């Protein structure tokens, strides 16, 4: 059934950099080969159900601005209409994947039993639509942060009944993701943190969170879900102190609870910035520790200081992100999910298409630049030269020695090193040649 929302908008095609068509791809050509793989298979784009369809245009200072054919989102009829619109947009964009929370695809019913019934109903509906479409489920997740029951957390809540409600909800969403053939399942602890230590038992809450995640992993194996379990780092907002603050914090948490071999990370650009890092830093760290899984691609307004979830438009930043993705072997089950939303003044269906078209072009340009840098090898050569001293036998032996033996060598050889240039500006100029 057509919703009429996207009437008059033709499927988006690649027309090249010389085209002036605002609803054409200028750089994203899904079939072009990059490092021996189709561009589409490298990037693995996904549409975020929550921002593209469920978000109504509100912000902390004002209510909804969007009027969609599926509003208000309080019935199964509206949920089906929203799903119809979603697949219309997937077809227009040629997107290979989509991502969702349970609260995005079904109305909130209040009780778990009613939520489960509505989730089962809409998942059957989406599964039917998926069978006749290109787009597949990249990942599903549970919204354990919007409803007032989760105001003090889900897995970390002081009330065991909230923990139980959250666990039952995640089970239902993991089951649904499995039914839809999802390639990953994501847990974002939007309220897994605290506002004040005056009423918080840190050790207890983190133990609860660790046990909760272990049960998710156990259920994954019980039902035969072959996808990847992902945790998404997020600092501060909305809780003042988040237990999943950044990649390093999450890695430490996973190792503490023995989950490092079972869980990987879904890394968001906006979250990286809020944590005081760069996007490429977070990706590179996850790759280095063998825990990289997937990315949420967006950007923040650097003048606002909060998570504005805007579509990406910074090619150099995106290029460095994909450089580390490619250097780490590329995506396996993960992909590039546009966790990005329109500005609340961008009201039209065409705005929603244009936003994704531009973002896909930015990512395509970034990918091509990243691939060209890898093929050229300039950054790798610079790294090799900078650390060349560590390849010498005496340097390797030093790592297996002790302080006494090192001190004797320094005295015997009269070692008194002079600093060597890190050549940062030259390397920045090198990157700029490609972007």
Automatic annotation (TrEMBL):
What InterPro entries does this protein map onto? Answer: Xyl_isomerase-like_sf, Xylose_isom_bac, Xylose_isomerase
Subcellular location per UniProt equals: Cytoplasm
Annotated Gene Ontology cellular components are: cytoplasm
Q: Output one GO MF annotation.
A: xylose isomerase activity
E.C. number: 5.3.1.5
Needed cofactors, names only, are:
Mg(2+)
According to UniProt, the reaction catalysed is: alpha-D-xylose = alpha-D-xylulofuranose
In the record, the note on similarity to other proteins reads: Belongs to the xylose isomerase family.
What protein is this chain from?
Answer: Xylose isomerase
Record the organism.
Thetidibacter halocola
């Amino acid at each position: 059934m057509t919703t009429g929302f996207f009437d008059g908008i033709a499927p988006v095609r690649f027309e090249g950099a010389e085209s002036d068509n605002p609803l054409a791809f200028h750089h994203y050509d899904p079939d072009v080969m990059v490092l021996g793989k189709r561009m589409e298979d490298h990037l693995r784009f996904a549409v975020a159900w929550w921002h593209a369809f469920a978000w109504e245009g509100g912000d902390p200072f004002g209510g909804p601005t969007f009027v969609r054919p599926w509003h208000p989102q309080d019935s199964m009829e509206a949920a089906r209409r929203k799903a119809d619109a979603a697949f219309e947009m997937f077809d227009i964009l040629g997107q290979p994947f989509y991502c969702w929370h349970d609260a995005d695809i079904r109305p909130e019913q209040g009780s778990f039993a009613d939520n489960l019934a509505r989730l089962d109903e809409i998942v059957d509906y989406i599964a039917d639509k998926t069978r006749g479409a290109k787009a597949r489920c990249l990942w599903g997740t549970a919204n354990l942060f919007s409803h007032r029951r989760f105001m003090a957390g889900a897995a970390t809540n002081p009330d065991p009944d909230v923990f139980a409600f959250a666990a039952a909800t995640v089970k239902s969403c993991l089951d649904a993701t499995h039914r839809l053939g999802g390639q990953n399942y994501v847990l974002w602890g939007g309220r897994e943190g605290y506002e004040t230590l005056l009423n918080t038992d840190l050790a207890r809450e983190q133990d609860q969170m660790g046990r909760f995640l272990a049960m998710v992993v156990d259920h994954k194996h019980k039902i035969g879900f072959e996808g990847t379990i992902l945790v998404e780092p997020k600092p501060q907002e909305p809780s003042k102190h988040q237990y999943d603050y950044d990649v390093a914090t999450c890695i430490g948490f996973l190792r503490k609870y023995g989950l490092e071999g079972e869980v990987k990370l879904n890394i968001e650009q906006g979250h990286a910035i809020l944590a005081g890092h760069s996007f490429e830093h977070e990706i590179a760290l996850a790759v280095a520790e063998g825990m990289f899984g997937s990315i949420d691609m967006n950007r923040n307004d650097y003048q606002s200081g909060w998570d504005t979830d805007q579509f990406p438009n910074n090619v150099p930043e995106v290029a460095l992100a994909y450089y580390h993705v490619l250097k780490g072997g590329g995506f396996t089950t993960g992909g590039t999910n546009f966790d990005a939303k329109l500005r609340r003044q961008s009201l039209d269906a065409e705005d929603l298409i244009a936003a994704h078209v531009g973002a896909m072009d930015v990512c395509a340009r970034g990918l091509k630049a990243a691939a060209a840098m890898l093929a050229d090898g300039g950054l790798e050569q610079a790294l090799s030269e900078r650390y060349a001293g560590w390849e010498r036998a005496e340097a390797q032996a030093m790592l297996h020695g002790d302080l006494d033996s090192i001190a004797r060598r320094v005295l015997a050889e009269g070692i008194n090193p002079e600093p060597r240039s890190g050549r940062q500006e030259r390397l920045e100029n090198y990157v700029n040649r490609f972007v």
